[in-house]
Amino acid sequence: FGEENMATEITPFLLSAQSPDANIRTAAEASLKQYQEQNLPAFLYSLSVELSKDDKPIESRRLAGIVLKNSLDAKDAVRKEQLIQQWVAIDASVKLQIKELLLRTVGSVVAEAGHTAAQVIAKIASIEIPRKEWPELIGSLLTNMTQPDRPASLKKSTLETLGFVCEEISYQDLGQDEVNSVLTAVVQGMTLADHGPEVRLAATRALYNALDFAQTNFENEMERNYIMKALSSLVPMLLETLLKQEEDQDQDDDIWNLSMAGGTCLGLVAKTVGDAIVPLIMPFVEANITKPDWRSREAATFAFGSILDGPSVEKLTPLVNGGLEFLLNAMSDANSHVKDTTAWTLSRIFEILHSPATGFSVISNSNLTRIMSVLLESIKDAPNVAAKPVLTDANDSRLVASAYETLNEVVRCVNIAETSQIIAQLLPVIMNKLGLTVEMQIISSDDREKQGDLQALLCGVLQVIIQKLSAADDTKHIILQVADQMMVLFLRVFACRSSTVHEEAMLAIGALAYATGAEFGKYMQEFYKYLEMGLQNFEEYQVCSISVGVVGDICRALDDKILPYCDQIMTNLLNDLSSGILHRSVKPPIFSCFGDIALAIGEHFEKYLPYAMPMMQGASEVCAQIDSDDEEMLDYGNQLRRSIFEAYSGILQGFKNSKAELMLPHAGHLLQFIEVVFRDKQRDESVTKAAVAVMGDLADTLGPNMKIAFKDKSFYVDFLGESVFSLMMTSSRKLLLGHRV
């Protein structure tokens, strides 16, 4: 087929399909669809011609590329297989011309066209390379990289293509020689001096996608060392990006700029290479940490904070010991960016490195008072909220947030036996600050947002303090003495009706319920209306999820004293499960909550059984349909299965002493579900533990009737044997690790 008699002029249709006029758009879409259905090979060829021509409008080329991709791949597994078979059935000569056009387009002077062609090539590669039908692809791409006369733009697009191809196929689909050639080209793209920054960046991204291909190479020490030689060139490039801060980068947590990306990448490098990163970044830190330019000081601090999770404690200990006082002093730096990054770095030091169990304590009796005074002084950077309607500017707001987060890490880290007096003194300070926020004058929506942000931070600190002090019998009374005052504060915060505060206040109340136990019952009448608002909050699903968790906390605190509220709570939970709008991540906690409620109210859960069991059985069937190739869905499936088992366990234990026979009709479905989980080798360890636990609860609750339930079931013998072996292996690993420590 020649281009002259194969391709149809589709530019007008592609442009009209993007028209704001619905009539024009609909007619064009119908024409394209008709062409696709009547002659798919010619349709795909025409799209590839459109994408390849630099004289065509970018709008038509863009849509041509999108339609090409969508003609080769789909998220739905059934649809994807249909598209694959359609491509496979096309005449080989037509496919060859399409592929040649796409490879030519990779070198287009219009970068977007080259980028799109790279993605389409990868989709075709995912179909053909496993079938050994496009053996020349890798060689064609490598030629672009090895010929010295090829322009940088072509090398950049080629590296993009290699990256996309590596993302789509398995390293097992290529021969080892091809894998070696790809990795060599990528590493050279990162390191050769004549390659500009755009080519090196494309090569780095390609290496990220090709890491799975390097498995065999990384097993060979010589090749592994060659690949990791990207290191002495890569780290200085990343450190250079840290100096590219933006003046307003603190105004929005969601902003992703060059310096943030560089710091994130530096952290990943540190996790990969460990101690080897330290000598590469410390000269940069030492050279910049005291410079008069704020960008240099901030970049040096950011570099040090970014690499803390990677090197060994032994390597970092002298650096942290030598630099802690310097960092504490930097919390009073004249520049807010420097203070913010310093607070973040301190937080990471306390979170990652403070580990008395391993023999290294950042926080000690000698420096605790100094650390606390610095952090409390930083928190004062926000003006008095009762006196001023405007809380603070964006930079100070970020600093205060970092200071509070660091304070939380300090409270979590400290030895409560040695520091209970200091924590007890901190408690009224934070409570007083929270009280001031609800008194502030609100003039604008901006004021309301800033008020909410500060209240969330304060509620977060109170949650950590409640958990810390209530964990020990010697200090629990400190919380009990001020529980009434704290609950009044939390209820006043709820009255501000800020969803952010709602989350943090809910979490703090959950901690308070755990601490106060049965005494929490006196707060329920006033608190329940806010709890119900949280359970009904479909739009802000995180609030709903946290509220479900708090129901569990309250059940454990009140036991059967929760009964007067159970009808309303169960109605809300069942409505949540039935909702088509509520985010799926809330559903596993709801099933776990069924178990908490049943455990708390025992035989009284009988009235809810006809509603809860169909929901649980329906969800167990959903688990069997989850796409095992989708990592995110696989994780969700594990959460869902674990929560269903937790629900069954709670219900079984709740009925154990009085109405065990109620669960006999449901035993068959439960065992069938456990068997399906047993057959799934991709299950999470936590799912296995939950399944074994529920089998024990089932046997314990049914007693002599268990023989009826387990009749004709043999899988459980293998399952229990496998689980015991797994537990023994885990214990052995922990024992070995313990000896190593």
Automatic annotation (TrEMBL):
The name this protein goes by in its record: Importin N-terminal domain-containing protein
All copies of domain Importin N-terminal, residue ranges: 28-108
Coiled coil: none
InterPro entries assigned: ARM-like (IPR011989), ARM-type_fold (IPR016024), IMB1_TNPO1-like_TPR (IPR058584), Importin-beta_N (IPR001494), Importin_beta (IPR040122), TPR_IPO4/5 (IPR057672)
Alphabetical GO biological process terms: protein import into nucleus
PROSITE patterns xref list: IMPORTIN_B_NT
Pfam families xref list: IBN_N, TPR_IMB1, TPR_IPO5
Transport in keyword set: yes
Cellular compartment(s): Cytoplasm; Nucleus
Single GO molecular function: small GTPase binding
GO CC, one annotated term: cytoplasm
Keyword terms: Cytoplasm, Nucleus, Protein transport, Repeat, Transport
Organism from which the protein derives: Coptis chinensis
Entry annotated with the keyword Transmembrane helix: no
